[in-house]
Amino acid sequence: MLNRAKTYTWLFALLFVPYIIICFFAHPVADDYAYSLSSVFGGYWKHQVHDFLYWNGRYASNAVIILTPLKLNSFLGYRLVLLTLILLTPLTFYFFLSALFSTQFSKAQRLMSALALSVLYFGIMPDLAEGLYWLTGAITYQLGNMLTIIYIGIVALFLQKKFIFNKPFHSLLCFLMLFISIGFNEVNTLILISIHVLVLFLLRKELNIRPTLLLLSAFAILFSLIMILAPGNAARGDFFTNNYNILYSLKMTALQMIRFFLKWASFPPLLLASVLFIPIGQMLFEQSPIFRKMAEIKIWQCFTLLCLMIFLCVFPAYWGTGILGQHRTLNAACFFFILIWFLFIFILSKRFNLVQYTIPAKLNNFVTLLFIACLLISGNSGIALLELGNGEICSFNTEMNERYTKLESAKQQGMKSVTLPTLKNRPASLFVLDIKPGYNNLVNRTYAIYFGIDTVKAVPPNP
Known about the structure:
The chain has 23 helices and 2 strands.
C-alpha cells in the first residue's frame, strides 16, 4: 500500500467530488442569519460581548462566525467558506502526520493518508449537514477540530525540538493555538484537557519535558475556565427545563456511548482501514519513538479513551440542555475517535500477535481498492450520491431559491408579514432546520430580520 501511495492519492481525492458538489447547494438558516446581524447589537465587538454574556462562552468560534459572508449578502461566499473548510481538512491531517511521522512517511504517503482520513471521517460523521454544510456548525466544530490537531502537531514538534523559526516563537505559538482551540466549543475544551492529562501520564518520567507539559496543562485549565464560567452559558441553560439532572444525563449518555461506539466500530470502511493499518502500525512501532511511546497504553486504557471521547461530547449536551437535540457535537467525538481507533487496533494486534497474519501484497491492493469503493458507496457518501442522483438536493435548492424570491418580493412591496410553505424536500446531506407554524420560532425570526420583514409564518407545502 505504501509503495503505491501516489496512485491511491488520486483515487482518494476523487472521493471528495460528491462533497464538493453539494457545497454549491448549501443554504444558510437560523444561527447563520443571526450571526450576520451585528448591526442589531451595535457592531462586531458588541455582538461578541453580547453572545459571551447572554448565549455562550465560545470566544474564538464566535469571533470567526460573526465575520460571515452573509454580512455582504453573499450566498456564494457562504458556500466558498464551506468548500474551504472541506479542502483544509486533508491539509490539516497532513500537517498532523508530518509533525508526528515526517521521517517514517514520505510526502506522498502522508498526503494519501491525510486524504484517506478525511473521506473516512466525512463518510462516518453522525451529522453531515450540520458538520460540513451549515456554516455555524462547520466553524464551531469542524474548524475547532482542525485547530485542535494543529495545536497537537505544534506541541509534538516542540517536544521533538523542531521549532518554527525559533524556540521563543514556537513557544508563543503553542500557547496562542491552545487559547484559540479551547475557545471554539465546549467539547473541544474537555477533549484538550483530557489529551493533556494523557500526555502527562505517558511522559511522566521525562523530566526534561514534564515542566513544559505541566505549564501547557495549567494554561489549558485557565483558558477553559473562560469558557465554562462565561455568563452566557448560564443564560442559555434557562431555555431548557430538564437540564442539570445528573442521573438522567449519565443514563442517556451511557446509552448513546454504546450506540455510537458500535455504529462507528462496525462501519465497513473503518474495518477495512484497520486491516490495512496493522502492518503500518508495526512499521511505526519500529521506527517512531512517538508511536512507540503511545503504544505503551494498555488495551483497557485505549478502550476507555475511545469511550471517553464519546462521553465528553454527549454528556455536556444532556447536562446543559436535557436532550441530545443535534449530533454536531458527536462529529467532534467521531473526529478524535477515528485517530484513537487506529492506535487501539495496533495495540490489539500487538497483544494478539496479529502482525503475523498480515495480508499478502496482492491481496493488500485488493483490500485498498475495496476500502475506496466502500467509502464511495457507503455512509454519508452513499447517501449524498443517492440524493444527488434522485434530484432531492436539486429540488431542495429550487425550493430555497423560490423562498428567497418571495421574501425579497415581500420586502420590496413593503409587506409586514409573509407566509411561506415548509420544505417538501429535506435531503439528509443538507437539511438542518426549517420554519415552523407561528412566527416566534428562531428560524422564522432570523428570516424576518435578515430580509427586513416583521414576521414570517409557515404553512404546509402544497401537495
